[in-house]
């Protein structure tokens, strides 16, 4: 099976799961893969779940050059969502990542790191 089919199978498996923490492993795996256009939704969901095991994947994704996000002009919105997901996770490790982003050489990442720090820890209350 080629990578595109693997990604399609992972997306189908994700869609078959209930909207809860059981999705976490697939969300983390898909966040680091090309071949789909769900990165913004995935990082948003990871923030809602708030599990610290997602931090390494978010760290990699925030600086990943996803061509479709650049082409659509959504790269910065995605990076901001990564910062908010880290703020929502609310651990010392996620705060350290936000602090690193706040010192990043990229102006946008620096801004989003600072914004995430201003919200950290970001509580989530289900309605």
List keywords for this structure.
Leucine-rich Repeat Variant, single chain, PBS_lyase_HEAT, mainly alpha, ARM-type_fold, 127 residues, ARM-like, HEAT repeat protein
Would you kindly provide a brief summary of this structure?
InterPro entries: ARM-like, ARM-type_fold, PBS_lyase_HEAT. With 127 residues, the protein is mainly α. It has 8 helices and no strands.
Structural class: mainly alpha
Number of strands: 0
- The total tally of domains equals 1
Strand content: under 5%
| CATH topology descriptor | Leucine-rich Repeat Variant
Overall 3D shape: globular
Q: Count the helices. How many?
A: 8
Query: What is the subunit arrangement here?
Result: single chain
Report low-confidence residues grouped into runs of 5 or more.
none
The largest β sheet comes out as: none
Would you tell me the overall average pLDDT?
93
CATH architecture: Alpha Horseshoe
The ordered string of helix (H) and strand (E) elements is HHHHHHHH
What top-tier CATH class fits best? Mainly Alpha
The CATH fourth-level homologous superfamily: Leucine-rich Repeat Variant
Share in helix: 55-70%
Rg, Cα atoms, Å: 14 Å
Distance between the termini: 41 Å
InterPro entries: ARM-like, ARM-type_fold, PBS_lyase_HEAT
Protein name: HEAT repeat protein
Pfam families: HEAT_PBS
Could you outline the blueprint of secondary structure elements for this entry?
Blueprint: H1 3-16, H2 24-31, H3 39-49, H4 55-62, H5 67-72, H6 75-89, H7 92-102, H8 107-119
Helix pairs in contact: 2-3, 3-6, 4-6, 6-7, 6-8, 7-8
Pfam family, one: HEAT_PBS
InterPro entries: ARM-like, ARM-type_fold, PBS_lyase_HEAT
Protein name: HEAT repeat protein
């Amino acid at each position: 099976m080629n990578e595109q089919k693997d990604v399609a199978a992972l997306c189908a498996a994700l869609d078959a799961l209930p909207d809860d923490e059981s999705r976490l492993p697939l969300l983390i795996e898909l966040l680091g893969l090309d071949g789909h256009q769900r990165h913004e939704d995935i990082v948003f969901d990871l923030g809602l779940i708030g599990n610290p095991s997602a931090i390494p994947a978010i760290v990699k994704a925030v600086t990943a050059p996803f061509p479709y996000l650049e082409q659509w002009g959504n790269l910065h919105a995605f990076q901001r969502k990564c910062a908010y997901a880290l703020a929502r996770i609310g651990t010392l490790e996620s705060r350290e990542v936000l602090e690193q982003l706040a010192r990043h050489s990229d102006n946008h990442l620096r801004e989003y790191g600072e914004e995430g720090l201003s919200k950290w820890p970001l509580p989530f209350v289900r309605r």
